[in-house]
Amino acid sequence: MIIRNIYSHLPGVRKREAFKTLARGKGFRLERIVSKGQATVKGKWLKERSAEWAIVLQGKASLLFKGKKEKCILKAGDYIFIPANTLHRVEWTHPKQKTVWLALHLR
After folding, report:
1. What is the DSSP string of 9-33?
2. 21: which residues sit within 8 A by CB, 6+ positions away?
3. Domain 25-106 is of which CATH architecture?
4. Residue 92 and residue 85: Cα distance in Å, rounded?
5. Residue 13 has pLDDT above 90, yes or no
6. pLDDT digit string, tens, across residues 72-102
7. What is the torsional sign of CA 8, 20, 29, 77?
8. What is the domain partition of the chain in residue ranges?
């Protein structure tokens, strides 16, 4: 068994978010996402074929779901379940602090 730390070796984030797969198995993929000021391109919506459960471990972020007016503001400790094929976008992530997410993709 190897012990690792989710905060070890956080990548420097510049233009794009940094994604790292931590584990995968039959029916799931677990990844760490590190953001700093990134957002989904204006006018673009994300749509995953699999459901996603995500938690913010550090920092802050805002999500918007198509058809909803109110943004979901997430801070450290907040998590959300996004059903498969749900149109959504990242409106913003904290511009001065790294936002560390843990995302579980369920197939």
Report:
1. TPPP-SSS-EEEEEEEETTEEEEEE
2. 29, 30, 31
3. Sandwich (2.60)
4. 21
5. no
6. 999 999 999 999 999 999 999 999 999 999 9
7. positive
8. 25-106
